[in-house]
Amino acid sequence: xxxxxxxxxxxxxxxxxxxxxxxxxxxxxxxxxxxxxxxxxxxxxxxxxxxxxxxxxxxxxxxxxxxxxxxxxxxxxxxxxxxxxxxxxxxxxxxxxxxxxxxxxxxxxxxxxxxxxxxxxxxxxxxxxxxxxxxxxxxxxxxxxxxxxxxxxxxxxxxxxxxxxxxxxxxxxxxxxxxxxxxxxxxxxxxxxxxxxxxxxxxxxxxxxxxxxxxxxxxxxxxxx
Amino acid sequence: xxxxxxxxxxxxxxxxxxxxxxxxxxxxxxxxxxxxxxxxxxxxxxxxxxxxxxxxxxxxxxxxxxxxxxxxxxxxxxxxxxxxxxxxxxxxxxxxxxxxxxxxxxxxxxxxxxxxxxxxxxxxxxxxxxxxxxxxxxxxxxxxxxxxxxxxxxxxxxxxxxxxxxxxxxxxxxxxxxxxxxxxxxxxxxxxxxxxxxxxxxxxxxxxxxxxxxxxxxxxxxxxx
DNA sequence: ATTAACTCTTACAGTTGTTGTAAGGTTAGA
DNA sequence: TCTAACCTTACAACAACTGTAAGAGTTAAT
Lengths: 225, 225
Description:
The structure is a homodimer. Chain A is an alpha/beta fold.
């Protein structure tokens, strides 16, 4: 069954939510902002995130932006903040719906179902700031242009974008693409990096993949650095 | 610029909406339920529909369902009905968001932008009952299976599905695929029909394209016949 | 400055998928 | 039965993608 992650520090409210969702058949995982919420959410790979904004440790807005850039969602903000500016801000940063507490369980469920239905047919774009990557179709959008990537190019790009601003280890990339292969030439990754860089050049994204000698590769630029 | 269709009978409210949206740069077309709203909406091919529920001639719910079945949207319901059951009903029938009047212009605009953004990345599936066609990606979904169609196969399939249950004239298909070509062999359509049929066979969709001798081809079966 | 390890680039060939052509076979209906 | 309409199959051209190979360039430590 679909897994929903709840990011909420209020224990009472959290349990109430869990009860509602579990009755509806969802598998629920709750995360508080005192743990390492971002990593936990990603590793749970939920089909929907319910997010409170009033977290003592970390701004809900930051979580929104972080998750959206990595193509994780949908995000439903459920908060007691009923100010319009909060709603506008959340929606702008990537929240997909914004409900204020108290919220009738049926409304919550209806909105959850709507978002999940919308997302089922969506091609999620990984956002790197000045370009977006459709990881299902392997298409790169740069301003008004777009270019289609090959399977290999898409896989590499996906890893780089998701890791921003970290460095992706070359072993990691190698294993991901050729880990199950019998034997491949040792420079296969380099060749494919050259090809990807050339493709990026064609759409004006030059010098965006940095080589970190001995370690791996890193996507640079965009809105994150 | 993006076109928004407003379905609203209250003249005053309609003009207020038009003013708000036009200030935001949208091109707006208003439709009242006294005309032939369904056809008008489709022929306007809007990028979003703002729908009132309290229409004297036709239920807003009916409009929702009608539009959704034809893959037209997104639909934003904007109504004075603030009962939960109305919202649930509208969402279930295909509305993508539900706002109650009075609604702050900024909230309306934010929700509109959110929906348009979601839809821009959505692959709408043409529904033929027992299978679905993703016309952007040329992928055919049959139950839990899916198969990727070639460009030609996808174009033909798209025409057939959209025309169901009518016959598509062979000249029409020919012009659509090879109309701009210098010269092509006269049996090119037949060859491609054979290929498409063979591909459909592979996913269990046998004998679904009927030849109408002298006229063209017709998709049969599914939930429409 | 030298050197060795690391990285990049380019050309080539094999593979796969798509497409149009050509030739011949089959079917429907008068 | 006869013929126009339709179907099928094989073939070759083409484009895209991929891995291999060889050689060139770059970096950082000595």
